Amino acid sequence: MPRHDWAAGPAAQMSSRAIAVVGLDCAFPGAPDPAAYWRLLNGTAHAVGSPPPSRFRAGAKGAFLADADAFDPGFLGISTAEASAMDPQQRLLLQCAWRAVEDCGVPPPELAGSRTGTYVGAMSDDWARLALADPAGITPRTGTGSGRSMLANRLAYQLDLRGPSLTVDTACSSSLVAVHLACNALLTDECDLALACGVNVVIGTALDQIYQQAGLAAADGRCKPFAAEADGIGRGEGVGVVALRRLDEAVRHGDPVYAVIHGSAVNQDGRSNGIMAPHRAAQREVVTAACVRAGAEPGQIRYVEAHGTGTALGDLIEVLALDDALGARQGPRAVPLALGSVKAAIGHTEGAAGMAGLVKAVLAIHHGTVPPGPSVGTENNQLALDRRQMELVTEPLELAAEGPGCRVGVSSFGMGGTNAHLVLGPAPHPQRGDEPHAPASGVFTLSADTPDALRANLRVQAAAAEATPSRDLAALCRTSNRVRSAQPCRFATVAGTPQELAEELRTAAGSMPEPVAAAEEPMVAFAFTGQGAQYPGMTAALYAGSPLYRGFLQDASAALRPWTGEPVHELLLAGSERVHRTGLTQPALFAVEYALARTLTELGLRPCAVIGHSIGEFAAAVLAGGLELADAARLVARRGALMEALPEGGGMLATRARAREARALAEDEPLCAVAAVNAPGATVLSGDLAGLARIREQLERGGFGCTPLTVSHAFHSPLMEPMLDAFAAAADGVPGAPPRIPFHSTVHGGQLPEGAALDAAYWREQIPATVRFEEAVGSLCAEPPTHIVEIGPKPVLTGLLRRITAARGIPALAPCRNADSGPRQLAEVVARLYQDGLDPEWERLYAEADRRTVRMQPHVFATNWRSWRQPVHPARGAGRRAPSGARGTAPPASGREVPPPSTGGTPCSKSLGEHPQPASNGHGHPLAGIRTVVSEITGRAPTELKEDLRFYDDLGFDSVMLMELKYRLEVRFPELGELSLPEMLSSLVSIGSLAAYVRGLLAPAAV
Asked: How far is CA 113 from each of CA 75, 93, 109, 157, 190, rounded to the nearest angstrom?
């Protein structure tokens, strides 16, 4: 866990030039993510070895990425054909940047259109050289898929970023110079967030030869910085991205901060002993300039992550320059200046070298310890480190002990003389409330584009969840909601402890059924419970645990108080039995249902329709816009009081008889009526006790079971008549309105007609009327919702819904199940709906103290799709297609699996220079040829390309793809000659419409 005890205080936050590192991600040899990178740096092993077979490097040793050829095009919505043409550096950057943005607590799609800058440091152009060496394989994608200039542009394009976007090539210092430029852009308000990146993939061997001939190559392929055994450079690969924001903005946003960049500088060697020779004075000046800008004295710099290539001359010049700027030449130091270089572990990653060192330094500051890394041999005595008051880090260096004023330097020097240096310090103290905060549960969510990807990510998150502190659990859940909720295959669970969460994730990863991708957002109906569901203390646990619900219940209680004479919410919290008195039952149920419904709508559940059972219709009316809260509160309170004032003596009888049998018997009893038809075999009669007794006798004689209900009055019966005029007078001034969403009336047994208002006449009629719940549910399910949520203190209607044919199969959910129901049960409803496609408003689910970012394990991208470019050998001819992509397991932009083509090979296995026989064959239909052409462009199998697929909406065509389509059509159908693009565009609706257009052009040839 990171050490925060040495974090900087408020003074550090106020620096006008301070830049916060708010997110990061990386992949280096032997370390596919930041956690693995930290483990590698703290271990004794290095990552140097033989290259993967795909590299065609004849066994030259170095530090190589295991999966540089792997990519997840489906996740990013990129076609496999496009991905095959992309420089692996572009692919690595896209995935790394995605994870770095997520790491700072922001979902990457949220950056679309933002002033986010992209600054990429890179020096390798091997992919472009290979692509251009194969003239027959050149397509319009060769330009967008190759070349260093496109690295930053591809990132900005894919994420729709509108800030500055540039690739920096200053050789080995490229990525640290990119960080410097990104910092300056933030300070000059060119962007609000900056992604500073470094990437390097070793494909060709030209640089190996240059190093070898210049005497710079290590015999064993390993850098040994500052060691007596140092004999040159060992090449390495990697990618790293840091997300940067001005520190004051980061603090204001509540962003988590790894470390702070206090100052940076870049300069040039100028004319030195040679363009490749390091320059002591220039290095001294760049370090000094960075310290001045950071406001740091030489003695504050405790550690420098050095360039440290492991060349005899380079190491000596760097030590001399550091001595001039920070060492003994600046006066006695309280403690020696510590040196180290990550190149000992992962080699010289060239254009990404500065980023590799920066990420190491940032993690060291975050954890409060500089790791020693793997041993490289004995210290080079010729460097005289002890005399210069310097030391190599050979055991963990505790930065935390140095205090918040401690600073760390990072150096990177380019082969052509461009130098960069950064000065970093610890993050400010996290701003946390002083109030004690009990651990809370939340909804942990995870999503992916395929079921397999979801399972893989569940396993990774399970491994990390158990180590989460209990106080951070709800905040972790909130982070998962904000960052990981954009993909179609979804998982959600509610957990009360980190251990429970870890177990849920492990179980789901190992045994969950095939996840079904949510096709569209759920259509949720709200069903409001009627009288009889009340109990003392109802929703007290939810009131205590949910500030959102608490606020809405207090609002309803305040609206009722002028008419009830006491706060209804206090009655509920007290657990008073008086809640069973009709005059208080109805206001209490109304308040609970209003508060529950408003809580759910604030969480993003927007009902497509509402239905209410008797008193439940009042809260339903408020939610639907047919009544204002204050008006509904007055009606409910007067209704309950007037009913309670009626003489007692009536009763209610539940029977399994159907409505027609019950109604026939009730017609013979003038003081009795059918009170409710709830479901088949679920009918309720109401009236005077003598009449009910006679009806019961006849029903039981006919074999229908009957159950008397415990009630104070005979609701929905003729015995309600004495209070109707008084209620009508009270309701007369209530301005009811037509509901804004479908309101399925249990008075009318169907949807309230359009334009009909829920006015005084409706509410008067409701009191004695039969509750036609079964009919109203049939009306609701005529256009069935995907889910029904019961709004009430416990499930009552849910059981009835299962008995109504029209509602069978529709999931019925209840946020309150019993007296113990609290925030967890509410969260479980939201979790279920999220899995089924809802995108909730998560923020309101969490207490203020939990609305912060807790870093998650990074997303795991799928690696089953791979593509690499093979070098073109002259003996094999120029017609060979170079890119090689294993597309059989790769999802296209739609996220579906692509079956391998029956002929094998890649979708673009034919070069543009090959002229097949005309697909139309003179008189034939050109559809097959068009499918082949589109397959070559998109990477999809021809059998997948149905005639109704649209070029733009379904196949993702853009302007580059259209130009390639035009050219390939001219090659495949040479008898067409040159096609007119403006004329062709009008036919580019679907594959079928293009086929019809081409067939029309070919028709004259058949005459």
From this structure: 20, 19, 9, 10, 14
Question: Given the structure tokens 């969950």, which residue do they identify?
Answer: 512
CA pseudo-torsion sign 626, 632, 638, 640? positive
Element housing 612 (H / E): strand 609-612
User: What b/e readout covers 814-829, taking b as 16+ CB neighbours within 10 angstroms?
Assistant: bbbeebebbbbbbbbb
Q: Among candidates 310, 291, 307, which has minimal Cα distance to 299?
A: 291
- Which residues of the chain are under the pLDDT cut of 70? 1-15, 56-59, 431-439, 485, 513-519, 870-924, 1004-1007
Q: DSSP class of residue 995?
A: H
Reported pTM: 0.86
Q: In this structure, what is the dihedral angle of CA atoms 491, 497, 500, 501, given to the nearest 10 degrees?
A: 30
The β-bridge partners of 199 are 239
DSSP state of 974: G
In 295-369, where does DSSP find H-type helix? Answer: 312-325, 343-346, 353-367
Name residues whose C-beta falls within 8 Å of residue 693's C-beta, 6 or more positions apart in sequence. Answer: none
Instruction: Report the DSSP pairing between strands 407-413 and 418-426.
Output: antiparallel
Backbone φ and ψ for 587, nearest 5 degrees, come out as: -60, -35
Q: Which residues pair with 337 in a beta bridge?
A: 390
Q: Is 704 helix (H, G, I), strand (E, B) or coil?
A: coil
Contact 713, 646 (CB under 8 A): yes
Q: Which residues, in sequence order, are CB contacts of 572 under 8 Å at separation 6+?
A: 536, 537, 538, 539, 540, 543, 553, 579, 588, 591, 592
Q: Which two tokens stand for residue 590?
A: 């109304």
Q: Are strands 301-305 and 337-340 parallel, antiparallel or unpaired?
A: parallel
Tens-digit pLDDT profile for residues 170-214: 999 999 999 999 999 999 999 999 999 999 999 888 888 888 888
Separation between Cα atoms, residue 973 and residue 976, nearest integer Å: 6
Farthest CA pair distance, the chain = 116
Q: From CA 306, how far away is CA 304, in angstroms rounded?
A: 5
Three-state SS for 952? coil
Rounded Cα–Cα distance for residues 242 and 598 (Å): 41
Measured distance CA(947)–CA(927) in Å, rounded: 8
| 672 phi/psi in degrees, rounded to 5 | -125, 160
| CB neighbour class for 1004 (10 Å; exposed up to 12, middle 13-18, buried from 19) | exposed
The DSSP 8-state label assigned to residue 433 in this structure reads -
Which sequence positions are flagged as catalytic? 172, 307, 348
> Do the bridges between strand 865-869 and strand 883-886 make them parallel or antiparallel, or are there none, so unpaired?
antiparallel
Q: How far apart are CA 838 and CA 946, in angstroms?
A: 31
3-state secondary structure of 172: strand
- Sign of the Cα pseudo-torsion (896, 899, 901, 907, in order): positive
Q: What is the mean pLDDT of the chain?
A: 89
> In Å, how far from its chain's centre is CA 89?
23
Share of the chain above pLDDT 90, in %: 73
Rg from Cα positions in the chain: 36
Residue pair 581/554 in contact (Cβ under 8 Å)? The answer is: no
